[in-house]
User: What shape does this take?
Amino acid sequence: MVFIVASFFLGLIIIKKIKLKTTLPVKAIVAGIIGITGLTQIIFWQSFILPFNKVFILATIGLVLIISLVQIKFKKIKYKRPKVNQVIFAVFWLSLWSWLWSRMLVLEPNGLFAGWVNIWGDWAAHLSYTTSFGFGDNFPPQMPLLAGARFSYPFMADFLSAILLKLDLNLIEAMILPSLWLSMLLTGMLYIFGGRISTWLFLLNGGLGFLWLKWGEELTHAETLNIEWINIITSQAIPQRGWLMGFPIALLVYWLLWRYWQNPKNNNLGLAGLLTTSLALIHAHSLILVSLVAGLLMLQERKIKPWIKFFLPVVVLGLPQVFYFYGSSLSGGSFIRWRPGWLADRNQDFWLWFWFKNLGAVLPLSLIGFKLAGKKLRQFSLGFWIIFILANLWQWQPWEWDNTKLITHWYLIAAVLAGKAIEKGLNSKEKIIKSLSLVFFSLSILSGSHDVWRLTQYQQRKIRFFTTEQLTLADKIRKNTNPKAIFLTADNHDHWVPVLTGRKIVLGFKGWLWSYGLDFSRQEQAVKTIYQGGEAAKELLKHYQVDYIVIGPMEKESNLKVNTAWLEANFPVWLETETTKILATNITKAGFDK
Assistant: This one.
């Protein structure tokens, strides 16, 4: 709470300095986003100079609070009472997010469980990145899952959780609590940017899966039907922590750009540029897309001078971060290729039919909304439509589905335009138009609502992440090994060593590393050679500075062909359980009396 309060006050100070004129509820949401972004960034960059520990984090938080109390003048607050529908909207989303997040990571007597398959799939990486900072002293940042590689993945959302680990929250709390806070900021910013109807359309997106699939199945994802525009909550807000922290920032920037576009006197382009810069280590795709939208607005306005405030911090502060952290993956070979229609070719679908299946009524409604919109909104939306076109012509990621990182930004404006069309229809005097608008709105969120409802079924959806034995082993490693120790393990995505201990490993899950554009071929061969034993193994252990070798069920069940006899003959057993042995390659560094 101290961290959240300090970040909120930091946001209020910035709002005061730039003289942002808006309503109190809007200021609260904006301050929340600016504050948590700013305070996380401050602590991250200071940790290159000062130790990343509880004392210095608390000192920074205290300093922010003191400055805030000096700067902010408390006076009687004037505000309008919220409308009943606004209260219902806020209560509903707070209740839903609280319900969902309370069931995403659950500690039971027989282990740690994930409440959704995408948490089990994606959060193994996010937990590894969080613990690499919180438990593994990962400064300067290196990729925890690939020994010797630079951290070429946006990790700031996980660093935020690492801060909370240092402030004595347990791992579940450190992951879940900021996710809940960011979810509410996301919902609030969606409301501010597009209104209530657009928020429903965006968060409960879903196509026509309900026409073919049974109730209880996932309606927004069916490869056999080529339905791939998966619900945003189930596929992005819940599993993708970078997106959950980055998209509210992008939304805030879009809102600031829209305010300027409506009236140049509302010029907060400097703040918009700084917020865009922060996306470099939070959600790099959003940095690129937000800059693209801003650039196209500048071209339409035909004025460069006002936009210097925006692009100067992006170029001077943002691009160096991009090249430093992602340079190796960008130079590792081009993965951009011509692919018209995105995934329509999987079933040889005509691209228009493919998108109608995936988007449902939102597709025609967004086009109607574009026609009904005023000139300013149509101009503002052009950049988003260009993003949609780009996503439909080229594949921009090694994994083709990751084009959704672009499509989501377009879908934001599509939901806004569709929301405008529905709202106009609901306000119509014609009963038939009102009825049709209500029907189209209901059908647009039917599949998405169903899939979000499935998230609440913890008992039916839960997957065991780690056994109690693995949790105990991880605890012993955290307490008794050097935070910078390097382990040799199998490359399972859910291997307990990187996830729970924060220790680096020679090679982690190759699917992630491939999607980051990283070359892992040398480490892949090295891991196989070491586990098979011999003199070459000893040389590779020295080269990768391996401190511990894990021989457990994952290693034995892999294709590594583990030569247990040779390994145990050459290295002492440092820790042993019923299923797992951990060997120390350098007993003097191990420092543990088993």
Observations:
- DSSP finds 27 helices and ten strands in the chain.
- Strands lie at 105-108, 111-114, 337-338, 394-395, 463-466, 486-488, 504-505, 548-551, 573-576, 581-584.
- Residues 590-594 have pLDDT under 50 and may be disordered.
